Amino acid sequence: MVSSDEQPLVHDIRLSTVGPGRVTGQDVVHEPTNMDQAMKLHYLRGVYYFKSQAVQGLTTSKIKESIFTWLNNFYHTCGGFRRAESGRPYIKCNDCGARFIEAQCVKTLDEWLQLEKDDDGSLRRMLVSNQVVGPELFFSPLVLLQITWFKCGGMSVGLSWAHVLGDAFSAADFMNSLGQVMAGHQLAQPLKLAQSHISAKISPSPPKSKDPLSVKRVGPVGDHWIAANNSKMKAFSFNLTSTQISHFHTKVCGQIGTNQIPFFECLCAVIWKVVAKIRDGPEPKMVTISKNDPHGRKNGILSNGQLISIVKADFSIMEANPKELAELVLNQAMDERSTIVEAVERDQGLSDLIVYGANLTFVDLEEADFYGLELKAQKPAYVGYTIDGVGDGGVVLLLPGPKDGPHNGGKVVTLIMPEDQVLKLKFELKKEFSIA
Amino acid sequence: MPPPMPKFSNSVKLKYVKLGYQYLVNHFLTLALVPVIITLLIQVIRLGPDEILTLWYSLRFDFLQILGSSFFVILLVTMFFMSRPRPVFLVDYVCYKPPASFRVPFSTFMEHSRIILSHEPKSVDFQMRILERSGLGEETCLPPAIHYIPPTPTMESSRGEAEMVIFSAIELLVNQTGIKPKDIDILIVNCSLFSPTPSLSAMVINKYKMRSNIRSFNLSGMGCSAGVIAIDLARDLLQVHPNSNALVVSTEIITPNNYQGKERSMLLPNCLFRMGAAAILLSNRRSDRCRAKYRLLHVVRTHRGADDKAYRCVYEEEDPEGKVGISLSKDLMAIAGEALKSNITTIGPLVLPASEQVLFLLSLIGRKIFNPKWKPYIPDFKQAFDHFCIHAGGRAVIDELQKSLLLSPEHVEASRMTLHRFGNTSSSSLWYEMSYIEAKGRMRKGDRVWQIAFGSGFKCNSAVWLCNRSVQTPTNGPWVDCIDRYPMHVPEVVKI
């Protein structure tokens, strides 16, 4: 990616490390739950874009100072993985830290966002790290932050987040508390103190039950936590305005009234049909749905509390009525979380699974508070998220759109699909959503 | 054969014998004079009042002779007082405390090391072993430029670090003592490894708009013992200039000295040296006498540079790849031991009580004349000093001194805890240690403190201070937020 004057678009990259300002102490560990272990091969990559007014007067050293205060509350994200005697991974909270990357961009923020519109996702990759855990488990940071300064004074914050630490809702809370610390607010003390030594869990393995349908076994990946894909995955997104959304919603699910199927399920149905149409081979009869579980979330604690369910269709997808399919997704989704947890428990946490992309996966992140990261009381101009480590089934993310300005009420749909399907998908989806 | 006495009563008996001996020798003059005075008094009383009066009248000279002799006496007394050295007081001092965002935990240091020296796993392992046994804690700090992978030391970032630490320290000192920078008469800055043009002392003068007739000095290249050298220089200047004060700033700038190569003998400083600075205000003014914290009693400097091995044991040079680093030779501890012996031989007579000196003399004579195989008597310095500040050069240095001087763990606690909390801050470490003792509330009026520092050259310098007034536990200072966690047990080997 070199511009005409031979300077790379993003240059002057400097790496350092940030961590908690307070000493965490010796022998403090954090044990990921079974659900966390199931998600360990996935990584969230989010980019928050800020206009220059929001970051005026901010310097790297001021940001770093705030980060050291902020990470006092999240010291387990600054640790490194070790393996217990049984081989089960746990986090040693040794204050190793999160990677901090500084970069400069030759374009202004507006120019960049314009470039991204026509891009295939590789531009955004330059604003966030694509590192994974491993091959050396001990010294792999779990969180990587990239601060990129644009020519106009705008800034982007790139978060690279190991899914084993928590789901996208937790990641959003994590980032939002950085904004609070930078504004000078004190964070509430973490409710959970890190546990002490790992208890030797030798619970009897439950009787052999079926593997959950929403996951796929891969590997073994050893200490390099990324699964190999059969095909290269590419990400692309498109923004939907509120007009397009209501238009689409009415088209698929009928008149606006009571008992209306939510937009997410309608989206799932339509995209499911499109994927079934363009994919070679048998059409996908099962999809995985991931949504927020408001009851499962405790304030201030990072966890993988998202709802994961499977939807099975016993009729032809291509022929199906979108509204029927949407109703199926809404009403017939079966919660698979306990099955997943059991499967991981059976393998004592040693299994290597992927959840996103085992089947065609739809992730509802509408309720994620991505725009809650405020700098100088200003929300980001735009937030984009994608997932790495996705299986060949592909993933569709529904994200909230920008909160201020003319785009209020809009949403963003991001798809991560095998490379060879991207063009056809784009074509079909543009038709569906009447995008020019 | 009589049964052997139980060890306890044996040692108790020995203790009383020692105490008795010490009391006898140390108060010899008093004990000798008392019977003389008593005898005289008895004689005088026996003479009777009439005899005394007759004696008194016969001693009366005429007026001129009395005036002459009294002038003579006054002259002698004045000459005596004027020839005595001016007392040098330490009004106050401060230590720089780096912010938590400069912290370097062990795991971060090792992670960076693995990435930077990715082709040299043996060197990385060596660094890990050093770090595990170093005695440092997880709160020591490095300057921002060294936090980068790879470190980015530039002239600008070195100046940045210098400005940050030196100006913060001086700011603190100005607030604490109320001194105005324009009132400073003498300025001495010592920083061994960073010596820009204009000098760091010029940097201070520029920042604080000091007077044009200030006497400024910049000491560089003199190693970790330069702090004591600076104090010595200040003292000498304060003898020549009456009614003056001196600002001494001791620091070591880490940024330009990060070794980027793989030679093991040169990797040690990277693991041990950390950010720090101290600013000290000395004065010879009478008005400062009451509020000063300490009075400088002695400074003893020993230089072993004449010996080639000693000269080369801490040597800055290029490694086979052309990277500059400071190589430490394997004989460092032995040479340090020798230098220490030289130093205490000189300082012993100045500070040790008569009892110890006599014993030492006897042992010396005995070894020379009777039997050279007699163990040399190590004077008990614990009787001369109440507190010890041993330069926190590394765990090995503190262990070596503790063994040589027969000190208890409490005596070296300040040094060990300073090494743990701040690392090896070079010339300023002595001041962090003093600050620790004050923070623990152990500094009382009349206490004597011995500061010992080693440095390249090879030098061993020591300074002796007398506590002028009881120091209250400070409400600010580098130890204020963590003193409750100390002393803590520092394990021999830390598992990273």
UniProtKB/TrEMBL annotation, chain A:
One of its GO terms (molecular function) is acyltransferase activity, transferring groups other than amino-acyl groups. Coiled coil: none annotated. Keywords: Transferase. Pfam families: Transferase. The keyword Transferase applies. PANTHER family: PROTEIN ECERIFERUM 26-LIKE, TRICHOTHECENE 3-O-ACETYLTRANSFERASE. Belongs to the plant acyltransferase family. This is HXXXD-type acyl-transferase family protein. It comes from Actinidia rufa.
UniProtKB/TrEMBL annotation, chain B:
Keywords: Acyltransferase, Membrane, Transferase, Transmembrane, Transmembrane helix. GO terms for cellular component: membrane. Pathway: Lipid metabolism; fatty acid biosynthesis. One of its GO terms (biological process) is fatty acid biosynthetic process. Gene3D superfamilies: 3.40.47.10. The chain crosses the membrane at residues 21-43, 63-82. The keyword rRNA-binding does not apply. Residues 81-368 form the FAE domain. The keyword Membrane applies. It is an enzyme of class 2 (transferase). GO terms for molecular function: fatty acid elongase activity. Coiled coil: none annotated. Residues 385-465 form the Beta-ketoacyl-[acyl-carrier-protein] synthase III C-terminal domain. Its EC number is 2.3.1.-. It is found in: Membrane. Its main location: membrane. Belongs to the thiolase-like superfamily. Chalcone/stilbene synthases family. This is 3-ketoacyl-CoA synthase. It comes from Actinidia rufa.
